[in-house]
Structure prediction request, 275 residues.
Amino acid sequence: MTAQAQEPAGADPARPIETPEALAARYRDGRPGVAYIKPRVLFLKTEALHEAPVPLTIHLPPSGIGSISLLEAACLTALVRIVRPRRIFEFGTFLGYSTSLFLANSDPGCDVASVDLGDIASDLAEAAGYSDAELRSDDRKNDDHLRLTQSRLGPLYLRDLAEADRRRLTLLHQDSRTLDTAALGLEGAVDFVFVDGGHDFGTIASDTVRARRMLGGSGVIAWHDFNSGIHGEVTRYMAGEADRDIILSVPGTLLAVSLTGAAREAFLAAAAAPG
Ligand SMILES: C[S@@+](CC[C@H](N)C(=O)[O-])C[C@H]1O[C@@H](n2cnc3c(N)ncnc32)[C@H](O)[C@@H]1O
Prediction:
C-alpha cells in the first residue's frame, strides 16, 4: 500500500494527532478531511507563543443546555491565544457564556461582536412546554427552546462586565441570515468567527458564507455542534466543508475548526519544528 493510499493522520478520532509537528505534516499531506487533534496540540502552541503560563478566565458552566463545555472553552481560549485576533465575531450569543469567555481571554484591544435574535418570546410560546426528552431528541425543538431561552433570559453572563470590556463588545439583535457584513464594516475585518447560532443546514451555510466574508481570506472559523447527537445538520454541513479542506476537531468536543490564509500559516508554524 502506498503512503498516499493510507488514511491521513488524525482521520480516526480514536487516534488523534498528538504534536504540532504531526499536524503540520498533515497539512503538507494536503488531503481534505477531518483531522482529529489532541487538546495538547493547541496547548503546546499556546505555551510556545507565551512566555508566562496562560490563564483561562471563565464562569462556571450553566446547568441548562445550550452553552459550550469546559474543554471546549479551553480549546477556544487556546485558539484565541494562538491567533490573537483583532476582532472576534460570534453567531449565537444565547446567555453570553461564550461571549464572556472571548472577552475575558482575548487581548485588551480585541473587539468582540455577537449576534442573536433578541426579543422573540411571543413567537415561540409553544417551545416553553417541550419536555427534556424532546429537547434531547428533536433538533428543531431544541433550537426553538434555545431561541426562547435567550429571548426570556437575555445575555446574563454579560451583566457584570468591567467598563473596559463593555466598550469592546457589540451585541447585535437580528436574524443572522440578514446580517449585512459590508454595511457593518466587518468584511476583511475579523480574524476569528464562532458559528454557534441556528443549527439547521440553511442557517449554518448562511452564517459560514458571512464568516468567510468577514475573514477576507485569513483567519479562523470554529463551528459548534459538529458530531452532536442532537444537531445532525451541523455534522452534515461539515461533511461538505471537509470534502474541500482540512477541518480540525478535538475528540470529546463538538468543535470543528477551519484555518485559512496567513492565519493558517502562523498557526501551523507555532511550536512546529520545520519538517
Ligand atoms: C447554542 S446557542 C449559543 C450558545 C453560546 N454560543 C454559548 O456557548 O454560550 C444558539 C443561539 O443561536 C441563536 N439563533 C438561532 N437562530 C438564529 C438566527 N437565525 N439568527 C441569530 N441567532 C440565532 C439562538 O437564539 C440561541 O441563542
